[in-house]
Amino acid sequence: MFVYEKKLQFPVKIAKPNPKLAKVIISQVGGPDGELGASMRYLNQRYSMPYPELKGLLTDIGTEELGHMEMVAAIIHQLTRKMSTEEILRSGLDTYFVDHTAGVYPTAASGFPWSAASMQVKGDVLADLNEDLAAEQKARVTYDNILRLSDDPDVNNVIRFLREREIVHYQRFGEGLRLAMEKMDQRNLYAVNPSFDR
Amino acid sequence: MEANRPDEGRYRLGNLPNPAPLAAAYVPMQDSTEPSYATNEALSRGTLFPGLDLPFMNIVNPDLDETPMTEMMAIDFVVDELELYLDTHAGDREAFAMYQTMLAMQKEARERYVSMCGPIQQKDQLGMDRYVWLNGPWPWEFSKNREG
After folding, report:
1. What is the pLDDT of residues A42-94, one digit of tens each?
2. This model's pTM is above 0.90
3. Cβ neighbours of A81 in B, within 8 Å
4. Residues B132, B119: Cα–Cα separation, whole Å
5. Phi and psi for A166 in degrees, rounded to 5?
6. Is the pLDDT assigned to residue B144 strictly greater than 80?
7. Domain ranges in chain B?
8. Residue A165 near chain B (CB below 8 Å)
9. For residue B100, which of B73, B78, B70 has the smallest C-alpha distance?
10. Helices (H), strands (E): how many in chain A?
11. Inter-chain contact A168–B49, Cβ cutoff 8 Å?
12. Alpha-carbon span A163 to B84, nearest angstrom
């Protein structure tokens, strides 16, 4: 069961609309390393996790990622308010606008819509946690790249917060992997898949 | 090696198994919740833990304006951060004691916020005289006057 909280995890208050910036930041809503994919990855991987620490970790990080999706969507919503048709054309957001107006649609910056093909649920504790570690690194790099492209302090404060969360999640997934491996066959970690072979 | 390390960097180090098996990725375990940032600084930095605070190009966020909303956000954030830590350190008594302290602060901060600014969850409307859930602004909306 999920319950909505009418607040963000970190404040989003963008004084200056900027459709050009929205055009790249949308990737962290619906791109291959975005927050929608992150939440779906973790919240769906948790069912096959054999150990309580990992059920807890994937539930809690997956839930936080839903909150991050809302924060990035809030950035897009605020960057695209009160746009004139001239601004839409000049910014290059016209190819997005024609399909979605000023709505928030989960897509990569390239225009490829969010796809479950950008994530996996392997049903194997080692494979899934290694994917999660990689996913946090890839999202961190996307935020690095947004910081290279943006000079709006209101946007960058939120992006820096989200980027730092990727690093903390990387640490926790690493610890979760370690706790899992300690419970497995120390002579051969690959002897069985504890998510399936009970 | 150990003796040559400056003390001020130690909080960035965790422990690894010795020896460690081949063909396995290892991240060091964080040893402790100490040192940790104050709640407001934790929120602006994006982590409670200086040891995990690794900013891009070493640029960090300025302090957030203190409002009833950011005060509550900061406490909620530290609670969330401690929960992730406890998921992988369930036996850490000191971390659990800190979590208890933060939960008590959270309860108080939320009650204060709700009485001043309105409900965070639907159930916060218990005892109110009318349905105020629909009052804006919503969290994603830009508002100059909005708390937060």
Report:
1. 999 999 999 999 999 999 999 999 999 999 999 999 999 999 999 999 999 99
2. yes
3. 142
4. 8
5. -60, -40
6. no
7. 29-118
8. yes
9. B78
10. 8, 0
11. yes
12. 17
Identify the pLDDT of residue B148.
Answer: 47
How many of the other CB atoms lie within 10 Å of CB of B22?
A: 6
What is the residue-wise DSSP string for A87-112? HHHHHTTHHHHHHHTTS---B-TTSP
Name the residue ranges covered by the structural domains of chain A: 19-182
In angstroms, the Cα distances linking A18 to A14, A24, A136, A152, B48 are: 9, 11, 27, 9, 31
Q: Is the ipTM here above 0.85?
A: yes
- Report the alpha-carbon distance of residue B68 to residue B112 in Å, rounded: 8
Asked if B55 and A164 come within 8 Å (Cβ–Cβ), the reply is: yes
Q: Give me the phi and psi of B33, to 5 degrees please.
A: -85, 0
Tokens standing for residue A115: 């796809």
Question: A19-182 falls under which CATH superfamily?
Answer: Ferritin, core subunit, four-helix bundle (1.20.1260.10)
What pLDDT was estimated at residue A142?
98
